[in-house]
Write the structure tokens for this entry.
Amino acid sequence: MNIIFYRYNSVCEPDFIDAFKQVGVNVVEDDDGMNVNLDISAKIDRLGDLIAEYSPLFIFSINYFPFLSIVCDRLGIIYMSETVDCPVFEIYHNSIKNKTNKTFLFDYGQYLSVKDYNPKNIFYLPLGSPTERVSKLLGDESRYLYDVSFIGSLYSEKDPFTELKISEKSKDKLMSLMNEQVDKASFGMEWIEDNLDEESVKEIKAIDSLVGGTEYVCDLDNFIVSNNYLSYHMAYMERIRMLNSLAENKDINGIHLFTRSNTKDLDKSIICHGGVKTLTEMPFVFRQSKINLNITMRSIQTGIPQRIWDIMACRGFVLTNYQPELEEYFEIGTHLETFTSIEEMNDKISYYLKNDSKRETISQNGYEEVCNKHSILMRVINMIKIVTTA
């Protein structure tokens, strides 16, 4: 059984390739997506040659690519994709309606927004843990080097809101919306989506063409303003606030930040290490931290981000902002811990730093849960079953 795996250098690709191979699939890698100088027509020609040579059961990619869907639809070949980001704007392209698609979305909110455009071929499926790769890498590692660690961008370098050339009135409105959203819930952007005013959207659209027109199944103006402009700024706001708040927590013996972002707005007591390599260095930080802090991007509406699955695969203790789907797969306080406010985050960090046995029991429970029920291998098997039986 052959499949063609279209690659664009996502860090999630190696784990999925390994999982497909473990179930006996011959994976033919098409790495044209890694070549930024290659145009679409050349990629299509290359894909056509691979299809002719290997007669694949399906084409697979991490995230959704409209051109792959169009090619597969014309040739009558299944196109399977699994989103690992949210949002993935491309899922609103008209090609999402193609009957050869098998599209798997990890965020239930995003799934609901698009499923009716192709109800038999769009599926909800949570992400999974890279348990086998990580266990081989870490071995018996059990040292603690850090009290509290956070790995991730501060989004200062990816925040277009600060440079947005719109009226002060509109900018103030949007800032007020973002502050209210942060105050009202620890996840999502429902308040913003319900209250985003037309005037501000029009101003942004005047300086940014956004995405739209007949190529898409719906009007994306509000959606793009919320996700391209506001979600990044909220990520920056929240991460700075949370980390600076932790700097005042006297129970913490060192807050360790691993990031490539500019850290000028952070408390000077925070220990900044620079970035780490996702596949080879990050797992050691997760395992060697007493508490791993996760702060989910607001654009992930309800779902569980890959970062949580990664931490648990390393037998790391997870403290994350609450997301609705967590309770679908885990028992809070048994497999991981959550918070809904900065105050609760600080309280739980203080508690678990003083209660080693409870913390370690939770991290072990979480590790066993993802090994037994939620590995990437299990997700791949599930996807193959759906494709071969539908």
In short: The longest helix spans residues 221-246.
